[in-house]
Amino acid sequence: MLKTAGVVGAAMMLHPLVVCAEAEAEALVLSCIDPRIQEPVHKYLDERGLTGRYCHFVIAGAAIAVVSPVFFGWHKVFWDNLAIAVRVNQIKKVIALDHRDCATAKTAYSEAALATPAAEAKTHQRVLLQFRKQVGERQPKLAIETGLMALDGSIEMVG
């Protein structure tokens, strides 16, 4: 909803109209920059009725970027954005979607950790559970949903 605030009469000529955007969102969605999953992520969120009702934070690796020591320098950017989404957009939950065949996962973890679909799932489960724990510690009022998305858009929920 847009609200306007202004000063009436001659004073209005001295002070331009101020337009404030107040946008409540249901969730902050965390996903990867990989172009192969952008459409599946949007489709998933649309099917859930969230179109136009979420803030989207996109970073290489999604939850991996937030918890892996390899990407320590990126952590603060996510946490600061989450805090803003809570304060400004009054989000109620975080939805983190990692994906299979993620190059960032390969950078952050060993080849053995991703060698088979089962090992890959286990690595992402560990990351997503760590992510859930950290969100809970920093923003205890938020609900948290985490999932591992296949390239076809199917999702295994974690946690």
Note down, in words, how this protein is organized.
- With about 160 residues, the chain is an alpha/beta fold.
- It has a single domain (about 25-159), classed as 3-Layer(aba) Sandwich (Beta-carbonic Anhydrase, Chain A), CATH 3.40.1050.
- It has 6 helices and 7 strands.
- The protein has a 5-stranded mixed β-sheet with strand order 4-3-5-6-7, with helices on both faces.
- The chain is globular and about 45 Å long.
Biggest sheet strand order reads 4-3-5-6-7
Note the gap between the termini. Answer: 35 Å
CATH class: Alpha Beta
CATH topology annotation: Beta-carbonic Anhydrase, Chain A
**CATH level 4 superfamily:** Carbonic anhydrase
Measured by DSSP, the beta-strand proportion falls in: 15-25%
Rg over C-alpha atoms, rounded to the nearest angstrom: 19 Å
Total count of strands = 7
Overall form: globular
Q: What is the element string, with H for helices and E for strands?
A: EHEEHEHHEHHEE
Mean pLDDT: 87
> What structural class do helix, strand and pairing data support?
alpha/beta
Largest sheet geometry: 5 strands, mixed
* Low-pLDDT sequence parts: 1-22
CATH architecture: 3-Layer(aba) Sandwich
Number of helices: 6
Percent helix, as a range, is 40-55%
Overall structural domain count: 1
